[in-house]
Amino acid sequence: MTRPGSAGDAIWIGAPDLPAALGELSRRPEGLWCLGDPAGLAGASACHVAIVGTREASPYGVRVAERLAAAAVRAGLVVVSGLARGIDAAAHRAALSAGGRTVGVQGTGVDVPYPASHRALHAALVERGTVLSEMEPGTTATPGCFPRRNRLIAGLCRVTVVVEAPFKSGAINTATQALELGRVVAAVPGRIDDPSAQGSNLLIRDGAQVISETADLLALFGIGPGQRLRADGTMEAAESMGPRAAFAELGGISEETPGTPLIEDVRAISVAALRRELE
Predict the structure, then answer these.
(1) For the chain, which domains are there?
(2) pTM, whole model, 2 decimals?
């Protein structure tokens, strides 16, 4: 690694120092610029999960992204996303709030927050996480820069989760590039009449893993109850989260509810959600 004086605090990470996972890309980057902690790359792709989705996220999509990201970092995973509005921002913020590691990959220069309204989020990642870019510092958004960014997100991650996305979106582009790399792609089901969920639902129809609770995401990394993943890919003991706690984290039941069969918990969640839709 070098620290060119012309790039301020940005660090240039040359190809030999990049994670081997990026070597699987058809267009491997010559290097990446980094602001924040370069250790955010440690463990890629074994411990890295992409949580991506639409910029026009629904409250449901934001809520699920937040809960998946928080559960992921508590289990030792690193949350990777694109620092965009909507699902990306929700995932980054939740990972930081849970005290975990998160990596933001930009299509602009590493020192150019995009969108500009995300200056505070960008600054938080620089301070407590990692911001990466293939572009020279100072580079603004250009045609084609975001698909290039998306391939890096896919390349860094063992699993890509699409929370909510229309047919034509950066999230679906990221998932497509992950599939081309032979990585795992998962999606959160959405309403069939919601255009912002049509792309993620299509992924499920075509064979993507279904994320119906936080435990589904952790299982894709082989993380079971009472386990946490280390950066070297091995497991360590962690505070157990049983199936009832997993449902509680998705906004359904209370852990204090005694003796209720799990299927009744599921029905209660579904009925409550339907009532909210009809109000």
Answers:
(1) 5-240 (3.40.50.450), 242-279 (no CATH)
(2) 0.83
